[in-house]
Amino acid sequence: MTVPQPDWLDPTPWIAAAQRATPEAAAGALRATTPAEREFAVLISPAAAGQLEAMAQRAQALTRRHFGRTISLYTPLYLSNYCSGGCTYCGFASDRKAPRKRLSFEEVETECRAIKALGVDEILLLTGERTPEADLSYLLRCVKIAARSFHKVTVEVFPMPTDEYRALVDAGCTGLTLYQETYDPELYAKLHRWGPKQDYPARLDAPERALSAGFRFIGIGALLGLGDPLYDMIALYQHATHLQRRHWRAGVSVSFPRIQPEVGGFKPGVVVTDHQLVQFILAFRICLPTVPLVLSTREPAKLRDGMAGIGVNKMSVASKTTVGGYSEDDDASATEQFEVSDTRSTEAFCQSLRAHGLEPVFKNWDSVYRAETRDAQ
Amino acid sequence: MSTELRIGDQCLPSRLIMGTGKFADTATMIRSVEASGTGLVTVALRRFNRELVEDDLYGPLSELKTVQLMPNTSGAMDAKEAVRAALLSREISGSPFLKLEIHPNPHHLLPDPIETYEAARILVKEGFLVMPYVPADPVLCKRLEDIGCASVMPLGAPIGTGKGLTTQEMLRIIIRDSSIPVIVDAGLRSPAEAAAAMELGCDAVLVNSAVAAAEAPERMAEAFAMGVEAGRMAWEAGLMPTSEAAIASSPLTSFLAGRNE
Amino acid sequence: MNLLVNGETVEHSGEGDLLSLLTEVGANPKLCAVMVNGSVVPRETWADTALSENDEIEILVFASGG
Predict the structure, then answer these.
(1) Catalytic residue among B22, B80, B99, B163
(2) ipTM of the complex
């Protein structure tokens, strides 16, 4: 059974280009005035691996040109880890024993207050696949609560039809984050054992549905470590350029989640090294200079500090991947989706950024022009 | 040969589009149009005047079997007038092509983006292949694409100035983001500039003043044809990258040292 | 009847339809387009378009332009 791919998604010819690439071609790609798909394929290839420093220099210049020396910050809030899905790589799959928790609306308010007190102005709300405990109406209410305190509310939740995305927009949502996990349809089928997430095309098209419904910002990504990283990075590049061309009013950002061994014992299919991760991020920065690139606290402090300002310009801060966790002192680590590597507080992280000549930015978007939120306030 | 130019459902044999204005006489214009190898020329409307009947150009133009007419709405001051001009033009030639040109200021002749957008909206519904002449504004070009224009025609420089691709950086963005043909119009002075526009990736160029005002317009038309062809072939062949030298500073990737490869 | 044609007053002594007027002023029907009182009149209806006193008619032809 083959899953039909849309016209714009065809990594195969570029993988061949990447495999044929030479270090000379990589050096040439690095010098291109308007790098495009060909240059991207060469820059992510093993042939370019020895030119990271040169790539970093170019990436830094481009990051400074388009983003100045600023780093945008956001904080994730896991609303619920109930999940009906069957992802082999996730400790929250419905057949796994992880303790389940869902924030009550009072708890959502408390968590939002605690996060707001950190100085953060952009919140990311997460749930698993749709469940009766965490369905659309639950999500809408949480979004409304968050929209009262935060100017930017992004959700990373189950894909849904356009009218449901529209309801989220009306409730105050400005952004959607949705990772395809892997763009390889055969691998995707193997990794998603049951549930709605098995529907590859529905997930692939979800960002466009969200954009038609009025979302302003879309974050996409592929989970590094699942499949062939060259395939997924090229597909991710194609996805980003397609969204930019088709939805020219939208802001598209790219994230680089890298699989961690999960509690249930999932071993990454492919090991993506730090070098490779850095190379991929730099290639994206060079070839898509205006697209924000995001690195979360899944990655350790040294890597985050190193990449800040030379490609990465958006990061999560003071993250907890437990359900809630910002306002409680008790150990909620039993509900952690992944282990946070960079555990620095907001102050410590901002201090480090400033020491590197970078300015942390908590807010660069004001929702005051949106009539709905003004009335709610 | 480079690849064919498609606009809407029409195929054109050349990526050079010619304007017919400012020539010394109709005969020179016709010879220049022929020498250019173009498949599309612009014409304007004027009031019939029985005294000027020897200036009839529709007759001789329609004898050039490979050349289609693209009436322009030049002279219209607003959307209403442009729509009227378009409908009148279609009465005469039946051509689906329509160059939408609304420039209220007679000194700089720069296009009015608001009236142009309004007129385009109406004329697309009327079934024209609307080709709007516009400032090199990437957002305006996407909006015109959204409402169904067959192409966009951003200017290189104000009409008749011959200042070349002053809008080059905007043209790069427009070309990168457009799903419809991008045709650079106005301001080109030399075949080298036409080639440069094609090398940026645009789909065609429109040239008028540079040919009409040349010492030998026919030869200049031929030169422009070669320039457009060369530029397009170069773009299709994949130009060698220019140098974007990085400024050396202290190493940026030393944080990777010691981390597991 | 008196008509305003291309901005000038003209006395039309023909049949009173648009096609006759064009013939009278020497315009080649194949090469022009016509507006009457601001509205474009399709070619196929010219013979049947009756003119009235003081109608404003614009007869347009293609000219050179960029």
Answers:
(1) B99
(2) 0.89
